Amino acid sequence: MYPCRVAVSALFFINGLLVGSWAPKIPALMARLDITEAMAGILVVMLGAGSLCLMPAFGAMVARRGSARAVRIAAWGAAPALIWISVAPDLWTVGAAVALFGGLIGGMDVAMNANAVAVERARGRAIMSSCHGFWSLGAFAGAGAGGMAIQRFGEIPHAIAVSALFALVLLVVRRRIIEDGPEPGAARPPLRLPRTPLPYLIGVMALMAMVPEGAILDWAAVFMQRELGASLAVAGWGFAACAATMAAMRFLGDLIRRRLGAVRTLRLSTLAAMAGLAMAGLADSAPWAIAGFALAGIGIANMVPIAFSAAGNVPGLAAGIGLSVVTMMGYSGILVAPGAIGFLAESVSFSAIYLGLAVLLTIPLALSHLAATADFGQPD
Length: 380
What we know:
Blueprint: H1 3-22, H2 25-33, H3 37-65, H4 67-78, H5 81-87, H6 91-123, H7 128-153, H8 155-173, H9 198-226, H10 232-235, H11 237-260, H12 262-282, H13 286-300, H14 303-312, H15 319-335, H16 337-344, H17 350-360, H18 362-366
């Protein structure tokens, strides 16, 4: 296997590990700071706001200096972020630490997706779905072990352990990251938004696919604790189950798309996600909710990679431009929308919210024909 392929897969894994480790910290922060769901929602909004502030900066860095430099800066900055959140003494300092965490994780996300595109071009082979599979493996590990680790050892030891593992992996792969900066003397690409509506419509599709993923990431543990009576150790397995099935399906994603095509794969995936969210929303016990989240993960798994592939192959548009638009719009769903859910949960049950998210997925289902550009260069 190519060293650059290993390196970019490792980047996706440790990014997922850090994000997954954040999920079980939310109930712990709520208990330590003695805050409500609405206040926790503000923290989630801070995470999303930080990400959306820094993602354009890292996108510009990728365009001007290449993804390798951008991903190293973002990753080394993010390495100790969970420690900052864990030692922050009050709501204001926790909010600031969460915003910085979101910004650096979001910047790393943009850069590593661009680096995956660079590896695809260098190898002449699609790897995006499996890269997202490695992200899901990391998120599964972080969310599954995180709740048990926090419950047994506490917030700070958990954060130190995750940060140390993150930094160790980064040290090992740092020299194997593919270098993709512009050629010396090459003209700098103009940093402007595309004027065709297609990438924005694909971005809406990615946005609607990522809202449920964000809702499961940030609120599944709280839902299972508050409404289903699960312990913290069990509650962490809500998102972990979703991340596990997402990982499995993402490793199969390229094969499935070759057999069925991007449009049919997206439609079947959306229907599975809708069924899983409805199952979780109707669950009356933790095992049924976990099973619902697992089914939702099967559906969500390849919706975003297909959207990214479609954005990278919009006719007449540079791949990096389309990808940057869809990445920004998509990740706003996983980072910003869950904050609004925290406020909504003050007056509406999480069960009703997950049922509503199942209905929301009718939007990407209606737009699924736009995924045809993901099959660019493949036989019909």
